[in-house]
């Protein structure tokens, strides 16, 4: 008997690839995930997950694991001026007051997503190098000589996506002028630190962010600082170039003394140059589509890159739930149509927010009023549920 339902090849075992695999398995679809790294894992830093993606993690059965291994972010979270004067509180709930915002260690989130999949689904040590369209199927090849063929391929291979080039000539990465120093500190080393708060300090051209991970046992920090043209040329888009803790301490010297107390404990830090891309005019070609950063790399100033990749995965799995093998190309286009406008809005919103955070406003009261007013935008972001729209899109196809 011939198979009616598609089997799906996913390239990339990051947050987006692993989440979409979970969502597809929930709908009874056959998937395999190919990851280039020899083992799954992530550099040691945090990711902020918000109600618009947590509702999907819950739908695939991962709510309890997120609750257990994440750190719920409290509603007493706040923005400050560089010296610690309060600007405004931070919107962490949706407009119904539902607080499902967590800080998570990236390695924990990857681990939860990977362990929820059936054994054998994830294959590490597979670096994708090629893509080929065949009659009614799609095929990827790997540097180790292996090939994988399926009724469709999802390129969830991140900001440097190899598969993107098989859809559309990739737009060039745009450098924001900013680098991020990231790392974690054991909370027991800074005992007076408020366990559950997301906090951000805003100064001229720089900002500093902290939030809790692992039930508050770790503090995640990110220092965003501008770099000159020379440094910009030297730095590649990277998650894991080592950063100098003393350079980080110097960047924030003279700020709120709480930051100094925290940074005293930093022994290692990573430094990454922050890039995004212009929204891409196309993500899908035939039986190949893109998801997450491969489709819409964005700056981290709304904390939405991982959240949007989870929304993508839920939308795609919902549309594919009852799709036949023959209907795959139409279903992939429906997914792209559904997601493109929302993700482009979040991409541009993240750029705008970065400019707002790092602005040189003559009148800081204007900047502070904008920061306070931004809560309304966040509520809209967090209220969004992609599933009803995806079901409607699937109905239109049938
Ligand atoms: C400083 C900073 C802070 C951030 N903070 C947040 C935050 O708080 N909240 C949030 O939502 N987002 C945040 N983000 C963004 C977020 O990390 C990304 O948007 C998210 O990880 C995207 O997931 P992804 O699966 O698309 O890509 P990735 O997580 O990058 O995963 C891609 C995977 O594909 C693999 N891969 C790549 N090429 C190949 C290949 N050729 N073959 C096989 N495998 C391959 C990679 O090894 C990787 O495992 C932040 C980003 C930065 C830079």
Topology overview:
Blueprint: E1 7-11, H1 15-26, E2 30-34, E3 46-49, H2 51-59, H3 63-69, E4 71-72, E5 78-81, E6 86-89, E7 102-105, H4 106-115, E8 122-123, E9 128-134, E10 137-142, E11 147-150, E12 152-155, E13 174-186, E14 199-203, E15 206-213, E16 218-226, H5 229-234, E17 241-243, H6 245-251, H7 257-263, E18 269-276, E19 284-285, E20 288-290, H8 293-296, H9 305-320, H10 328-357, H11 364-373, H12 375-383, H13 386-397
The protein binds flavin-adenine dinucleotide.
Mind explaining what this structure looks like?
With 398 residues, the protein is α+β, with helices and mostly antiparallel strands. The protein has helices at 15-26, 51-59, 63-69, 106-115, 229-234, 245-251, 257-263, 293-296, 305-320, 328-357, 364-373, 375-383, 386-397, and strands at residues 7-11, 30-34, 46-49, 71-72, 78-81, 86-89, 102-105, 122-123, 128-134, 137-142, 147-150, 152-155, 174-186, 199-203, 206-213, 218-226, 241-243, 269-276, 284-285, 288-290. The strands form 4 sheets. An 8-stranded mixed sheet has the order 6-5-14-15-16-13-18-17. A hairpin with a 4-residue loop joins strand 10 (137-142) and strand 11 (147-150). Helix 1 (15-26) packs parallel to helix 4, helix 1 packs parallel to helix 9 and helix 9 (305-320) packs antiparallel against helix 10. The chain starts with 6 loop residues before the first strand and ends with a helix. The structure holds flavin-adenine dinucleotide.
